[in-house]
Amino acid sequence: MMRLMPIIVAAAGCLVALSGCGMDFDVREGSESFIGAIAPPTPAEAAAWAVDENNANNRTRGTLLLSAAPWGGADPYLALYEDYLDDPDPNVRAAATRAIGNHGRPEHVPALVKQLADPSPHVRLDAAVSLQRVHHVDAIDPLVAALNPDNEPEADVRAAVANALGQYATRSVLQSLIAALDDRNLRVNEAVLSSLRTLTGQDFGYSRAQWQNWFRQAPDLFAGRTPYIYPVFQRSRRWYEYIPFLPPPPNEIPDSPAGFPREVGTQPEG
After folding, report:
1. Is the dihedral of CA 214, 216, 218, 223 positive or negative?
2. How far apart are CA 58 and CA 215, in angstroms?
3. How high is the mean pLDDT in each 10-residue block of the chain (270 residues)?
4. Calpha distance 156→185 (Å, rounded)
5. Are 64 and 98 in contact (CB under 8 A)?
6. pTM, 2 dp
7. What span, in angstroms and rounded, lies between the C-alpha atoms of 78 and 97?
8. Beta-carbon neighbour count of residue 25 at 10 Å?
9. Is-contact 158 190, C-beta < 8 A?
10. Which residues lie below 8 Å from residue 87, measured CB to CB, with a gap of 6+?
């Protein structure tokens, strides 16, 4: 153990120094131990930050922490997220939008759709990502509209929208995705192609002409449809996350959206 002490001390020093350089953990002031200094906030601290009327950064931070917790989908927290969709600070609105995506139900789709028109591109992106995780046919037309560069100038938002459309088996969605293969941004093209593959089981690459030809001739557009699984955040552990008592990466588990029909491939929607 004595031989390890210099290494532990050095690692502690590195972590404290790196905490001011954008690393994703916090150093607590006044802590009496190294582990205490870098431990995650308690639920009480997260809740206190989330309701801080005077500090938008705290509201953002607290909302994200609450929504990342397993119990963050309880009704009182959902009510808080819904209230914050209209917060004057765009970061708070984005955090609330993301929180509803993590824990929302189909009845939350109208609120998420509204966020697709937010002035902040960060809020619109979180709305598109959240609509990947909550399923309702009322999202189809707003998502199709947001796939058009004339309506949504941000390519990252359009890419997230294209991915969200992969859960809706309608002719209008297919037509919109095929048209979006002409989008000038490669990220959008890749998301569009992924959704086309999911909806149809076909793969004609980025050729809009081949997809259109197939669309006109296919007797059953959705015969090869496969279940839609939304993309998730995942990464390997960083070196400091192997230190005992530190939390692992906040990796998510891939799943189908809330409200998504468990049997797909036989009936179109909408």
Report:
1. positive
2. 50
3. 37 38 46 48 88 96 92 94 98 97 96 98 98 97 98 98 98 98 98 98 97 97 95 61 56 83 57
4. 9
5. yes
6. 0.80
7. 10
8. 16
9. no
10. 56, 59, 93, 96
